[in-house]
Amino acid sequence: MSVWEDVVGQERVVAAFRAAAEAARVAVAARGGGDSGAGEAIVAGEAGAVDASAMTHAWLVTGPPGSGRSVAARAFAAALQCTGEVPGCGVCKACRDVLSGSHPDVVRMATEKLLITMDEVKTLIGEAQRRPWTGNWRVILVEDADRMAERTTNVLLKSIEEPPPQTVWILCTPSADDVLPTIRSRCRLVTLRVPPADAVAELLVRRDGAEPELAARAARASQSHIGLARHLATDPGAWERRRRLLLAPISLRSVGDAVLAAADLVDAAEAEAAQATTERDAVEKAALLRALGLEEGGRVPPSLRAQVRQLEEDQKRRARRARTDVLDRAMIDLLSFYRDVLVVQLGSDVEQVNIDLSDAVTQVAASTGPRQSLARIAAIEECRERLRSNAAPLLAVESLMVQLRPQA
């Protein structure tokens, strides 16, 4: 067992992080050697096996959605704090604490809102200035660095450029272009690839207990997106919802049909998001009221209403983020369908994603041409961009459905 077990299909990245963790351990030994001579002796003794330049103070972990950026970053953080014989053993208390999110020296920022706020970034900077409590490093892990506005990102620049000697920054984004060039130039870039489908299927079987056949099907249908594959492998109703979504554009006959289909999709997304957040919202509000010494359902004094209102606003932002994520997942599924259509139209020998919908794919491919398929793929990407830019979801999806009609 090791911290790298869930980092699937990323051998090159794992090798880079392992080398960095080993170099970091040598640096810690040198730092604690008592005097400079002892430190130099330790480094020299390890020089044949460890490259000191493998470690640096700031990392930018990139990769397509579903490739496992956050998993790889957490595994690296665990390897840096590891106290076992080999960095990243996965057995020692430090490794287990990091992976469970309870290590005091690993500060993790993973927003459930559309944007990371300036105040949250300033809090991170303050955390970065602290010395480690129990571990060897103070690790600041930002899993959604692409969700910072430019003005907010600028605040990070000084801390990333010149952090304290025992602080390590790890930023995760889909692409290196998602952060400012000034930030990018001060980080070491590590890029994940799309993992092989069989590696994703093996992970679903091992970690989630999925049936091998279902796991392989889910890995292919999700195009090796680990999160989507897990959703398909563990949610009994996910396949039927996906099938209805992909077949809906074929049956559209008018603009009115497109508008109704868009409304159904947005309503379904809101229902799924509400199902995921409602119970948690209620638990959070009850906990806050107890902390304030209030009874649930009772009157909130004016002096305490601001705190309750702030929680409700945060929950609304989280609900919007959840709805956007559900809609984006639907867009990815639609992209896979028209990708298959284009594969058939071009006569490519590339394996199709939606094997169970091969008849529908063939039907659409025969009734349209590659130009129409490319236009529909572009329309889906445009809709995704609009959803990410906080456009009205219903209007964005209505526009898409109108463009996906067979007559369009």
Shape: globular
The structural class is: alpha/beta
Largest sheet: 5 strands, parallel
CA distance, first residue to last residue: 53 Å
Radius of gyration from CA coordinates: 24 Å
Helix-strand sequence? HHEHHEHEHEHEHHHHHHHHH
Unreliable stretches: 33-48
How helical, in percent, are the residues? 55-70%
- Report the average pLDDT across residues: 87
Main-sheet strand order equals 2-3-4-1-5
What amount of the residues lies in strands? 5-15%
Number of strands: 5
**Tally of individual helices:** 16
Fold and architecture overview:
This protein is of the alpha/beta class. Helices cover 59% and strands 6% of the residues. The protein has 16 helices and 5 strands. A 5-stranded parallel β-sheet has the order 2-3-4-1-5, sandwiched between helices. Helix 6 links the parallel strand 3 and strand 4. The longest helix has 41 residues. It is globular.
Summary tags:
single chain, 408 residues
Topology:
Elements: H1 11-31, H2 36-46, E1 58-62, H3 69-81, H4 93-100, E2 106-109, H5 118-128, E3 138-142, H6 150-161, E4 167-173, H7 181-184, E5 188-191, H8 197-208, H9 212-221, H10 226-234, H11 238-247, H12 255-291, H13 305-345, H14 358-367, H15 370-388, H16 393-404
Parallel strand pairs: 1-4, 1-5, 2-3, 3-4
Helix pairs in contact: 1-2, 1-3, 3-4, 5-6, 8-9, 8-10, 9-10, 12-13, 12-16, 13-14, 13-15, 15-16
